[in-house]
Design brief:
Blueprint (H helix, E strand, L loop, with lengths): L7 E7 L8 H10 L12 H12 L3 E7 L4 H10 L3 E4 L11 H10 L9 H8 L1 H10 L7 E4 L15 E5 L13 E2 L2 H15 L3 E5 L4 E9 L3 E3 L3 E5 L12 H5 L1 H7 L1 E5 L7 H15 L4 E9 L5 E8 L8 H8 L4 H14 L3 H11 L1
Parallel strand pairs: 1-2, 1-3
Antiparallel strand pairs: 4-7, 5-6, 5-7, 8-9, 8-10, 8-12, 10-11, 12-13
């Protein structure tokens, strides 16, 4: 499916995630591995899939490994003069929330980029700030408290158990385990201390909502397209455990198999809920100033109540991951999804574009 307008694309990836020269062969071997002996995970799989799709579309992609030096980005831009950057970075200097500064740097250099803008990244990465904004918009999200590092843990009286303790800023379920759900003040203090000491961030403590785990992808800048609802299910969940997306659930293939964890099209939703779900995701996307693409995480309680949990800008773009499969269910092939993200990046009206347009009209 070659594109009509081939583009020179600078693909920004973490320097440890640049696909190796034999990436295609490794992916083929992983696909051929028997189900009972799955191959080791390929940490650069998303980067490989995106680069391969860009080549198949007829573009000219160039992978650039980045870790803690903005100068390599500037040098690559000066040499390659890309029409657009495909941003796959999720951190800088090893700090997740610094990804927004890389995108800000691209804006200062007047280079269009895929994915979310700096403001949206800042708002969505800070889960406490997200909740405050959504509360102002009257969007239902679990009640919460914020426990900064170094502060004594004193639970507000309004916050009733059970509670879920997690990082304010880390993504990919880092630091989340079954022990993250606490039922008394002693365990609450222990888990907050764990987040402070082991994860290295402030702690967010929120009301635990039992129910179904739903994911919804959204594409767009001004005009939004909501993808089909996806759901995580647990076929063999131990009786004493809760159905939450822990760090092991997200990243441990053997654990996923043991618990029968699967993600796929959501089971039938209560009558009339689907349009409400789509409307809610659009409202959140706009309230948080998101652009490009995001994945929304929600909970559907047993009483039919819908609770918004968090927004994930720049989600995993592997070919066989939730967002890509959800797009496929909506009629977008993987290549079409990557092409759409490119076009959204080119269309996004960054402030430098607005200023240039105004100067041209003056």
């Amino acid at each position: 499916m070659p594109t009509r307008t081939p583009l020179r694309v600078l693909v920004l990836v973490h320097e440890d995630l640049v696909p190796p020269p034999d990436a295609d062969e490794q992916v083929a071997r992983a696909a051929a591995a028997p189900p009972d002996k799955p191959a080791d995970p390929l940490p650069w799989r998303a980067e490989h899939d995106v680069l391969r799709a860009l080549k198949r579309l007829g573009h000219d992609p160039h992978a650039l490994g980045v870790q803690s030096d903005l100068g390599v980005i500037r040098s690559a831009i000066d040499v390659l003069k890309p029409q657009v950057a495909f941003n796959l970075l999720e951190e800088f200097h090893g700090v997740g929330v610094y990804d927004q500064h890389v995108v800000s740097y691209l804006e200062l250099l007047k280079v269009p980029y895929t994915g979310c803008n700096p403001r949206g990244l800042m708002l969505a990465r800070d889960k406490v700030l997200t909740k405050k904004i959504l509360a102002w918009h009257r969007i239902r999200t679990p009640d919460f408290a914020h426990f900064p590092m170094g502060r004594k843990v004193v639970r507000p009286r309004r916050l009733a158990f059970p509670l879920l303790v997690k990082s304010v800023s880390e993504e990919a379920s880092r630091g989340i385990a079954q022990a993250s759900i606490v039922h008394n003040d002693e365990k609450l203090a222990e888990r907050v201390a764990f987040v402070h000491g082991k994860v290295g961030s402030d702690a967010l403590v929120e009301q635990y909502i039992e129910g179904r785990e739903l994911y919804v992808g959204v594409l767009g800048n001004q005009r939004l397209r909501v993808l089909p609802t996806w759901e995580m299910t647990f076929a063999n969940l131990p009786e004493a455990s809760e159905a939450i997306a822990t760090e092991r659930v997200k990243w441990d293939a053997a654990y996923q198999k043991k618990l029968g964890i699967k993600t796929g099209p959501a089971a039938p939703l209560p009558e009339g809920l689907a349009p409400k779900l789509q409307s809610l995701c659009r409202r959140v996307y706009r309230a948080l100033s998101l652009s490009g693409v995001a994945r929304m995480d929600l909970r559907l309680a047993p009483d039919g109540g819908l609770w918004f949990l968090e927004a994930n800008p720049n989600p995993n773009l592997e070919r066989d991951e939730d967002l890509s499969l959800s797009a496929k269910a909506a009629g977008l092939s993987y290549s079409e999804l990557i092409e759409r993200l490119l076009q959204l990046g080119l269309e996004y009206r960054a402030e430098w574009k607005v200023a240039e347009a105004a100067a041209g009209q003056g």
